[in-house]
Design brief:
Number of helices: 10
Strand order of the largest sheet: 1-3-2
Bound molecules: zinc ion
Shape: globular
Helix content: 25-40%
Number of domains: 2
Strand content: 15-25%
Length: about 240
């Protein structure tokens, strides 16, 4: 898969950029090169990757709604996500965009993390659709969550970190769950997680690449389980 890499090319250097195969995107009003350009390393040495503010065109900002829920990632998909496929500076652009458009307010519990810091700062949570027929994990939305909501969302990880009680209390408070409702929600989401963890999933982050963000690491489906296992083993060794 080739992607467009947007470049910061000053007007007076456009002819040199052209000789390296750079092209002008008239919609975005930016110079770009294809990720398979044979001169890519020379181009990136000479011109910076575009660092403008971004917009995630094609994202479904209603996906999953805005109610807090347990949204565990299948174990076969652990450690391979948007963040692991793009440059750290691009990840910063993505998450800062998500925080700014939410006015630094958690999109689930509505706490403003600039005014009240007890819930921690904002964190970017990737919301995925799981195509159970094609076995594809598709990025649909990136939502700004405070640390407490993010911790409750990843209830399995909270358990590993010894934070189950804290995560459950916060979820119960935000959703107004009774003890039985909380138990039912946990059981339902655990069953779904166990089912989905039984499969390998193809990663689809096309809403990232389609918005001109360079994919620096293409993760093959068959590599994902190995990456997950290696990282879990690594974590255990720490
Ligand atoms: Zn929150």
């Amino acid at each position: 898969m080739t992607t467009k890499i947007l470049l910061c090319v000053p007007f007076c250097e456009k002819d040199q950029a052209k000789t390296y195969g750079a092209k002008w995107d008239s919609d975005l009003k930016k110079w770009y090169v294809s990720s398979d350009n044979i001169h890519l390393s020379k181009i990136l040495e000479r011109w910076e990757i575009n660092s403008d503010a971004i917009d995630l065109i094609g994202e479904d900002r209603t996906f999953g709604g805005n109610a807090l829920f347990i949204d565990m990632i299948p174990s076969t998909c652990w450690f391979t996500n948007v963040r692991s496929c793009i440059h750290p500076s691009d990840w910063d652009r993505v998450r800062n965009h998500v925080y700014e458009r939410a006015s630094y307010t958690c999109e689930c519990c509505n706490i403003n993390t600039k005014e009240k810091t007890e819930n921690g700062g904002l964190e970017a949570h990737e919301r995925w659709e799981y195509d159970d027929i094609e076995k594809t994990q598709i990025l649909r939305r990136i939502i700004a969550l405070c640390h407490q909501c993010h911790q409750s969302t990843h209830m399995g990880l909270a358990g590993i970190l010894g934070k189950s009680g804290e995560a459950e209390t916060h979820l119960q408070k935000v959703r107004g769950f009774t003890t039985n409702e909380l138990k039912l929600h946990k059981n339902t989401t655990s069953s779904l997680w166990r089912y989905r963890s039984g499969f390998s999933w193809r990663l689809d982050i096309s809403i990232i690449s389609q918005n001109g963000i360079r994919i620096i690491k293409n993760i093959k489906t068959e590599e994902r389980l190995t990456i997950s296992n290696n990282n879990i083993d690594g974590s255990r060794n720490v």
